[in-house]
Amino acid sequence: MTIPIGIVGASGLVGGELLRLMDIHPDFRVVYAGSSGRGRDEESGPVALAEIHPHLLGSPAGELQLDPTRVSRIARTCQVVFLATPPAVSASLAPALLDAGVEVVADLSAAFRVKDPVLHKRWYPDVSRLWPSHQPVYGLPELNRDLLPGARLISVPGCLATASILALYPLSRMAGTRFSHITIDAKTGSAGSGTRLKAPGLHALRSHVVAPYAPTGHRHAAEIRECLTDHGLATTDGGLRLAMSAYGVDLIRGASVAAYVWTDDHVIPSGLTRIFRDTYQQERFVRVCDSRSGVLPMPDPKAVIGSNYCDVAPLVDTDTGRLVIISVLDTLTKGAAGQAIQACNTRFGWPEDAGLNLQPVFPA
Description:
This protein is α/β, with parallel strands linked by helices. It has helices at about 15-20, 50, 60-65, 70-75, 85-100, 115-125, 140-145, 160-170, 205, 220-230, 270-280, 335-345; strands at about 5-10, 30-35, 45-50, 65-70, 80-85, 105, 135-140, 155, 180-190, 210-215, 240-250, 255-260, 285-290, 310-315, 320-330.
């Protein structure tokens, strides 16, 4: 028996990726595709999803029509709803849908990611008054697997946050090792900006660039710090001294993070690799890479495109003692839609790779 689902924000890039993956999911069936910005109107009539997402042409998802968002209709027809909408829209829709009887809402915006209300207001529009009474669960199965069963509201992590957290989490298992501070150097492709075109997104300005768009004060740092602190990672100041810089690069779906970790303790490279392998040996979607040869000797977004994998490589700079951890993923899959599906699979007790058992497309 399949579960009927709805996708709000189905006209965007993340919405399109959700639809692509749902086409092969054995337990989910898309019955509603909504958008607050596009849909039926008297002049143009219904809009088929294949007109917006040409890769869905000929698929069941492509034949669905995009409708305006109506909470009452969604609640009547959908058991699970995925929100690929801006934070302010999600903050309003999620409680309305839950109150109307939807069993699970998986929100892919940043509306519920930061629990601390002071930090949330610093980085995002203040939507706390719209938050539902249901406690959001941070939807990163590798860390929060035990919290997802029974959850009604799942807050899906962002792409750079996911890559960063999976890069750094194994350090929390290095008992006795002291970390001074951490710097995250993140690079992401244009898919992370969505379809709302701004001048910097024009091809003439976006192509052939390494453009710093948040060299200081990236808002994902609060999300990363909060999650890792909850799971026991700390620096020598007693908190988690972590900074982040982000760059837009000439990619589409790829994201790459390099986490630089300073420590005065002696770390053996083979020991560091063993900790990462022990941490992720049972994880379906985290691949620890320690090869120095091959076509792509280091984690590269090109090797994960179209898949739900996150590739991670831990390194030790023996000249300085600095740890360098490289982490890559597909912005739209493990960084958004695939992650949301993996979290919902966990929530319902299904195999985590249901609908996600896809090899990367290479070369891409």
